Amino acid sequence: MKILVLNGPNINMLGIREPGIYGKSTFADLLALIEQTAKDEGIEIEQYQSNHEGCLVDKIQEAYGKFDGIVINPAAYTHTSIAILDALKAVGIPAVEVHISDVSQREDFRQVSYARLACCKTIMGHGLEGYREAILYLKALLEGIIGL
Ligand code: DQA
């Protein structure tokens, strides 16, 4: 089983950016948590972060035929990017949307999520742990233990 974990703009600034909202754990901590989850679960995981919308679209397109699932935190592009939505729809790979913060409790402009329209689940407000939950959910879904 191969899962692609994608992070959008400024997620590489974790630990520095707005710790009151995103916590004190660093981006390196996030990468390590995901690596450990992959090891524990016997899943092959590739991680990719970009501050550029087109690079994220390219990575989603390249996942076609190669990955069984996608975990994506599109960050600010969540609220603006029809291109990321279309890419997720184009490849048709089961995808889970993750947000570190609880976007439902934040500004009005964060209430729209385009990516969500192509995702089978959204996990928000669970901090870095949300990524582990997303991976476990995708694993159970892909193994047929749970349905959509
Ligand atoms: C975020 C929430 C977005 O609104 C914001 O632009 C981010 C991070 C989150 O993980 O909570 O960059 O996706």
Mean model confidence by pLDDT: 98
The fraction of residues in strands falls at: 15-25%
**Considering DSSP H and I runs of 4 or more, what fraction of the residues is helical?**
25-40%
Low-pLDDT sequence parts: none
User: Helical stretch count?
Assistant: 5
- Dominant shape: globular
Sequence of strands across the biggest β-sheet: 2-1-3-4-5
What letter string, H or E per element, gives the SSE order?
EHHEHEHEEH
**Helix-and-strand structural type:** alpha/beta
Largest sheet: 5 strands, parallel
Count of beta strands: 5
CA radius of gyration is: 14 Å
Ligand types: 1,3,4-trihydroxy-5-OXO-cyclohexanecarboxylic acid
Could you tell me how far the N terminus lies from the C terminus, measured between alpha carbons in angstroms? 18 Å
Q: Explain this structure to me?
A:
The chain has a 5-stranded parallel β-sheet, with helices on both faces. The model has no long low-confidence stretch (mean pLDDT 98). Helix 2 runs parallel beside helix 5 (129-142) and helix 3 (53-62) runs parallel beside helix 4 (82-91). It has helices spanning 19-22, 27-41, 53-62, 82-91, 129-142; strands at 2-7, 44-49, 69-73, 95-99, 121-124. The chain has 5 helices and 5 strands. It is globular, with a radius of gyration of 14 Å. It starts with a strand and ends in a 6-residue tail after the last helix. The protein is an alpha/beta fold. Strand 3, helix 4 (82-91) and strand 4 (95-99) form a beta-alpha-beta unit.
Structure characteristics:
148 residues; alpha/beta; 36% helix; 18% strand; binds 1,3,4-trihydroxy-5-OXO-cyclohexanecarboxylic acid
